């Protein structure tokens, strides 16, 4: 079992920055990939960024390319999402996800992940 917990959400002005954190506990050795997703109520859960835990390779959704950066701190069992130049469409609930160790690849599809956090809210206010 893998447990995930997000933090770092909040309210920010357009063009501002936030850093989201996700701490991983339990059987942390299981997962090969971790990712960030976001979701507006009633809409599909959208993949934002993916990272290969062992090699550090990353994949991003086109909508956040060049603005968001996913990273990890293996010693702390944490992953991060640095969000810069935030836009109104970035206002969502953000979720941390981990796969079950089956070698799914650098996916941004929610169906390819087995473990989820409860989410942290990001609000863009003007």
What is the gist of this entry?
The protein is mostly beta strands and 126 residues long. The chain has strands at residues 2-7, 10-12, 18-26, 33-39, 46-52, 58-60, 68-73, 78-83, 93-98, 115-116, 120-124.
Describe what you observe in this structure.
This protein is mainly beta. Helices cover about 0% and strands about 50% of the residues. The protein is built from no helices and eleven strands. The strands form two sheets. Strands 2, 4, 5, 6, 9, 10 and 11 form a seven-stranded mixed sheet that branches. Strands 1-3-8-7 form a four-stranded antiparallel sheet, with no helix packed on it. The model has no long low-confidence stretch (mean pLDDT about 95).
Ordered list of secondary-structure elements with their pairings:
Elements lengths: L1 E6 L2 E3 L5 E9 L6 E7 L6 E7 L5 E3 L7 E6 L4 E6 L9 E6 L16 E2 L3 E5 L2
Parallel strand pairs: 2-11
Antiparallel strand pairs: 1-3, 3-8, 4-5, 4-9, 5-6, 7-8, 9-10, 9-11
